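Posting for a labmate who doesn't have an account.
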Amino acid sequence: MTDQENSKTQTASEEGLRDGGVARRHWITAGVAAAAGLAGAFVAWQKYQPQGVMDVAVQNFWGQSFEKPEGGTLAMEAFRGKPLLVNFWATWCPPCIEELPLIDAFYKENQSKSFQVVGLAVDQPSQVRRFLTQKPLQFPNGLAGMVGSELGVSLGNAQSALPYSVLFDAKGRLLAQKAGKLDQKDLDSWLQKVT
C-alpha cells in the first residue's frame, strides 16, 4: 500500500470515527432529553395529584357549618357516623354541572343504605339559589363560598380544582379524593369502599 492510499484509508477511518462520535453524541443527547422529559412528567403528575391530608384538616372539616340555600344551617357534624361523599362544585363550572345529575341519582339510589351526599357550592349564594331553583337537587347543599375552596385545599385539593370530591367512612376518616368529574365507575368504587 502506498503512502497516499494509506493516508486515504486513515482519513476515511478518522471520518468514520468522527461520524460515529457525532451519532453517539446525538443518541446520548436524545437519551438525556428523554430522561429529563420523563422526570418532568413525573413531577407534574405528582404535583397535580391530591396531596396527603392531615388528621387535623379532617377534624376541622367535621366542625364546619354552612348556610343552606333554602335557609337554615348545614352542619357537617350531623353527617358523622355514616359514609359521606362531599362534592365541591360551582355554577360556573361545566364539569360540575354535568356531574350533578349523576351524583343526585346516586344519592337517591343509596340514601336508604345510609350513604350520604353533601354538596358544597364554592360560588356566590345568589347564583347557587338561582341554579337550584331551576335544577333542584335532592341531596343537601351548603353555601361554602371561599371557605369551601380553602376547605377543599385542606382536604387535598392543592390546585383548587373543581369539581372536587372526597369520601369519608362511617368513622369520619378520609378514604378517597378525586379532582375532576366523577363518573359512575368512581361512585360504584367508592360505594364498595364503605359497604
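Reply:
Got it, the C-alpha cells are right above this. The two ends are 87 Å apart (CA to CA).
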